[in-house]
Amino acid sequence: MAAKDQIEIALGESAAFQKLTQGLRHAIEAAVEISTLRSDPNWMQVSLLMEKTLSNVQNMHNNAAMRAVKGRRFN
Description:
Oligomer: single chain
Low-confidence stretches: none
Radius of gyration: 17 Å
Distance between the termini: 11 Å
Order of helices and strands: HH
Number of strands: 0
Strand content: under 5%
């Protein structure tokens, strides 16, 4: 695969990760608001689960970026 193709894939992947993290942040904020407005702790649990998911997504993105850098260094 050409270097240009790899760069385009990496940029597209990065954009997708950004969309995902932004969506999760909005969802977390919304769940906290619902929990507060309804005085319902179940929604706070939902927000905590989404925070864990956000953390996993960020770790996966970091790992993918590190693999991409390592791959480019040796190619």
